[in-house]
Amino acid sequence: MVFVTGATGILGRVITLELLKRGKKVRASKRPTSNIQEVRHSYTFYTDKADEYFDAIEWIDVDFEDVASLESALEGIEEVYHTAAKVSFHPNDEREMYRTNVNGTENLLYACEGSTVKKFLHVSSVAVLDGFNEKGELDEDSEFNPKLEHSSYAISKHLSEMEVWRAAGEGLKTIIINPGIIIGSGNWNQSSGELFHTFEDNSFTFSGGSAYVDVRDVAIIAVDLMEKNIFDERFIIVAENVKYEKIGNQIRRKLGLKEAKILSKTKLNIGRIANILFGWLIPKLRMITKSNIEAISSFNTISSHKVKEYLDYQFISVSESIDFHLNNYINDKKLKK
Fold first, then answer.
1. What digits encode the pLDDT tens for the residues 267-320?
2. CA 154 from chain center: how many Å?
3. Phi and psi dihedrals of 256, rounded to 5?
4. Residue 325 exposed, middle or buried by CB count within 10 Å (0-12, 13-18, 19+)
5. What DSSP string runs through 232-262?
6. Rounded distance between C-alpha atoms, residue 90 and residue 80, angstroms
7. Cβ distance 234 to 124 under 8 Å?
8. Minimal CA–CA distance to 36: which of 19, 20, 59?
9. What pTM, to 2 d.p., does this model score?
10. Spatial distance between the Cα atoms of 140 and 131, rounded to a whole number of angstroms
11. CA of 175: how far to CAs of 92, 117, 232, 235, 238, in Å?
């Protein structure tokens, strides 16, 4: 049996679905307050057997701060896909990110010791990558540099990776994947699911860019790597590196909105000064930190050469991915009216 953490998240739900399609039995973690019927609905975007697959999931409430709870969840489990994480770039979420991303991973790995678990896949992020190769790209050898400015999210994901490498050193068969920004359907108001309404609600974008990937590609690659037993490795999973402006305007055109204007780094730095002066009074200003400005103003090339080489994989284009999931977003909005 397979255990998927964070199975109500935009990635965890699709990894769960991919495993079910391959005939695996899946136990999936959720919070007591999780809306699993929203997951059922999102499956209609990915398969014509949504109810059949959803009803096959064994849902379980898990407290990641309670090792005994995790040990119980791991009974009879041979493979773990750890997708549960707190994704945020707001300073107020720092403590929760460390608790969820670092302590939660540490506790889960501790619970794996002496259990039936044989394989462990950990979902990290391209946010941990520092240092360019000879081609000027970030790749799997781009080690995290603690001397550089990082968001709390990036630091928490780096520390969680360290926990996984420690477990690997102690004998657990592990894989780490580092996806770019994941484009998916459902969970529209959390994490990567916010992509569409963020560009819909805001008439501005930024001068930088990032690496993007379709959630279906991440799920397939994750399961393929585990099935092929490619352990003690990390894999960057990105389809393309794209400017925020291009992504934002593709979304806004489809929604019948005017093209977004770019906020320059200079204007953002003025906002950072305002944050220093008035951040205590205006909560939204607290997002304008030095590390966040650098992240949205830079455009680095992130290479997915390694995973393409290992799996001979062809990614869904970012444009096609945006169209598919944006249509689902639009249709969901119509249903709510």
1. 666 555 444 443 433 345 455 566 667 777 788 999 999 999 999 999 999 999
2. 12
3. 75, 30
4. buried
5. SEEEEE-SEEEEHHHHHHHHHHHTT-PPPEE
6. 29
7. yes
8. 59
9. 0.92
10. 10
11. 31, 14, 6, 8, 16
